Amino acid sequence: MSNQKTGSKRSRTHSAGRSSQNILQTIGRVVILLLETVIVLGLGVYCVGFVLAKGPSPTASKMFVSSMRETSALKFVADLYFTSDEIAEIEAVKETIDYAPTDTSLITISADPVSEENKDGWTDAHGVFHLDEDGDGIIIEPVKGRGYAGYMMVVRDPSRVIMGSIPSSYGKRGYTVEEYVKHFDGVAGTNAGGFYDPGGWGQGEIPDSVLVVDGQIYYMEYGCGTEGGGGIAAIDGNHILHVAKSMSRQELIDKDIRYAVCYGPVLIVNGVSASPDSLSVSMNPRTAIGQCADGAMLFLVIDGRQTASMGAKYQDLVEIMERYGAVNAVNLDGGSSSMLWFQDHYVNNSSSVVGVRPMPSSFVVLKEGTGTG
User: How many Cβ atoms are within 10 Å of 75's Cβ, its own excluded?
Assistant: First the structure.
C-alpha cells in the first residue's frame, strides 16, 4: 500500500512538472510571436516612413518631416531618416509677411454687437450670412477641406473673450479647456498657448513662452513662439486682437495688452495674408484665433491624426480665416492640445491617445451679458 501511494505521488508530481513545463513553453512561444509581430510591424512602419521621407516626392518628404517635427512625442522620427542639417533645410521657410504693428483703426467694434435687429445672425466681410440659431451671439459651423475637418466658432461680442489661465497653478498642473470654462463660469473655450511637455506626457503646468493674464506679464524671459515659428496673439483693453512676431515688455504695457499668448506662425496682419512660401506644409490638428473688422472673434479648431481628418496645413488656416473676413489672425498651439468646448461638451475630437490634455492657458468665452466691458 505504501509503495502504491509513493508511486501515485511521484506520478502526480511528474504530471504537474510536465504541465508547468508546457505552460512555460506556451508562454515562451506567445512572447516570441509577439516580439516577431512587433519587429515586423516596426519594420513595416519604418519602410512606410522611408518611402514618405526618401521617396520620389519632395512635397511628401517635406510634409512628413514637418508634421513629425511639430509633435511632442514623435520629433525623433525625422532623425531616423535625415541629418540635423537636412532637417533644418527642410523646415526653413521664407519670411514674406509684413510684421508692421497692428492697425487698430481697421477694427470698429459695435456698441451692441448682438442687437435685436441682427440677433438672428452675422454677416461676414464678404456679405455671407451666418445663422445664429439661438441668438446667443456665438456661431459654430463645420469647416471642411482636402484632408481636414473642423469647426469655426464666431464670437460676435469680443468683450466676452478672456484669457483662461490660473497663475497659481503654474509649476503644478494645468487645466483642461473644459475645466477652464467651468472655472471662469463661461460657455465656450479653446486651447491657447504652448507649454513644456517632455516626451508628450506632461501636465501642462509650465508655459513655454510669454503669457499675459489680466494685464500681468509672466515668463517674459522665455521669449515668444519658440516652438511654433513665432507669433503672438494679444488682446488689448478695447478688445482688439494684436498679432505680431513678438512684443517686448514695453510694447505689451504701451498697448494696454490684457491677455496674450505666443505660438505662431502669424497668418494675417492688417488684412495681408502670409504667402504659402512663408508657411510650413506640415499637416496636424490646429487651433487659430482671428478678428474681423467689426470686432467679431474667430476661433478655428481643426481635427487631425484621424481617419476623417488628417489635419490642416497653415495655408488652410489662412484660407479659412480669409473666408470669414479676418483682418488679423495667428496660429495657436495645436496637435493633441486642439480642443473646442461649447455648452457642456467638446465639439471636436481629441487626437491624444491619453485623453484631453491639461494646459497652462486657454481662451474662454463668458456668458452673454458678462463681458469685460
Answer: 13
**Total domains present in the chain:** 2
Give Cα 72 distance to the centre of its chain.
11
In the chain, which ranges are E strands? 121-123, 129-131, 138-145, 148-155, 161-164, 186-191, 211-213, 216-218, 232-236, 241-244, 257-262, 266-269, 272-273, 286-292, 297-302, 326-331, 340-342, 345-346, 362-366
Q: 3-state DSSP call for residue 370?
A: coil
Whether 81 and 175 map to the same domain: the answer is: no
Query: 129 with 123: CB under 8 angstroms?
Result: yes
Find out whether 205 and 169 touch, Cβ atoms under 8 Å: yes
Residue with cell 520620389: 56
Dihedrals phi, psi of 2, to nearest 5 degrees:
-65, -40
* In a shared domain, residues 87 and 113: no
250: pLDDT strictly greater than 50:
yes
252-298, pLDDT tens digit by residue? Answer: 999 999 999 999 999 999 999 998 888 888 899 999 999 999 999 99
Q: Are residues 42 and 170 in the same domain?
A: no
Residue 14: domain span: 2-91
Question: In terms of DSSP bridges, do strands 216-218 and 257-262 run parallel, antiparallel, or are they unpaired?
Answer: unpaired
pLDDT tens for each residue of 213-232: 999 999 999 888 544 458 99
The CA–CA distances, whole Å, from 73 to 37, 69, 197 equal 23, 9, 9
Q: Rounded to an integer, what distance in angstroms lies between the CA atom of residue 293 and that of residue 290?
A: 10
